[in-house]
């Protein structure tokens, strides 16, 4: 799921489109998640070994945020 969001063009902006029938809380959760991904990407420029990513404590935060995002989007 995270990879799908990473590969989606402009997730942060796209999740805020008015035509999407989601609540303000859902929009906010999307932005929080997108900002975590952007921060991780800035901190880890270049390609990382998948083991390094999986073991990174910041990636654990992203996993938990993704789990919460799914809960909010699909109550």
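^ structure tokens above, recovered residues below v
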């Amino acid at each position: 799921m995270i990879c799908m969001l990473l590969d989606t063009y402009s997730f942060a902006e796209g999740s805020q489109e008015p035509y999407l029938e989601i609540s303000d809380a859902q929009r906010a959760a999307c932005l929080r998640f997108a900002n975590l991904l952007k921060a991780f990407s800035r901190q880890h420029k270049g390609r990382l070994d998948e083991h390094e990513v999986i073991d990174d404590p910041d990636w654990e935060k992203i996993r938990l945020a993704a789990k919460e995002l799914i809960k909010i989007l699909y109550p």
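Residues 24-43 form the longest helix (20 residues).
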